[in-house]
Amino acid sequence: MDYRPFFPKAKIDALHELLENKQAWVQQNKKGFLRYRLPFDAVSHLRAEQCDFNSDIVTIGRKKDISPQDHTRLTEVLHGFMPWRKGPFRIFDIDIDAEWRSERKWNRLQPELPDLENKIIGDIGCNNGYYMFRMVPYRPKLVLGFEPYIHHYYTFRTLNRFACQENLQVELLGIEHLPLFPECFDVLFCLGILYHRQSPIDALRDIYTALKPGGTMLIESQAIPGAGSMALFPEKTYAKVPGTWFVPTADCLRNWLLRCGFREVEKFCMHPMSNQEQRKTQWMTFESYDDFIDASDPSRTVEGYPAPWRVFFKATK
Prior knowledge:
With 317 residues, this protein is α/β, with parallel strands linked by helices. It has helices at residues 12-26, 31-43, 68-80, 102-109, 130-135, 150-163, 200-210, 250-259, 289-292; strands at residues 51-52, 58-60, 89-91, 94-96, 120-124, 142-146, 168-171, 185-191, 211-223, 231-232, 247-248, 263-272, 309-316. The protein has a single domain (12-316), classed as 3-Layer(aba) Sandwich (Rossmann fold), CATH 3.40.50. The radius of gyration is 20 Å and the shape is globular.
């Protein structure tokens, strides 16, 4: 896709070269790539006659839209995209109960959304695109999903091939590629990403740089409870996740945002995590929240750290 009309200030030649290299990489005929590309190809001819992005369940198509043979093949393909982390979805009447009840997070975000109509939006770490689909009713000009993992990249591409939402795009990019987009986005979503970065300050500065003047960031992060500006730095893992670096208190995250230059920094939600929102399902059969928490003391992780909360901020450039 030519992004010049959408990102006039982007380092467009470097961006297009990077994307070409990413596509050459993902088109390799190796097992790890074929595992997701071939299922995508097998169902890419299907089209949904009707979609619903206003409800908690993202609904794409109905069973009657496709043949029984295609429905059987699609069921196999969707199972092949397991584990499903974000959801729920209903795809041609196939119900996908994902690990995360993502509608709860969206319902917390929704009252704080800025005007999205005709805006350029980025969803950093978009996963399978659940939140991107929920943005469609707000009529954005473009939502660009940053998703470096092939599994989630192809899951979104499969869903959007059915849904045909031309203003939703995904690229094999990560938060580290934001410097290619100086002053390009009206709104950036950074949901569940920051604590996976070795340098959260650099990540926040990159987000700041990528926003247009007056642009808005909505950020949600894992957090620890308590007063004071401090962050937990786990010895090895936090809630069994080795890729967790800094887990801040709400005050600490607020100070990070302020010192990175954001203004109008507002915390609008903070709540403890629970197995009501993150849990095993038939579509995600691996360990989940209950396995990460001390069974004898739910206020602690299995490592003995404070159990995680989630905190939400809205900030302006």
